Amino acid sequence: MRKGILVNWDNGSIIIVFVFGLVIVGLVAAILLLMNNDKKKE
Fold it and tell me: What is the pTM of this model?
């Protein structure tokens, strides 16, 4: 066990990190779409 690593990389944690990354990408994409829609609205 390495004390420098905060997460124990078992099978579950990798899936959780992957899903968390997808959620953040989805939120950023939604914000960008809303910003683009507001600019075109004029």
Answer: 0.57
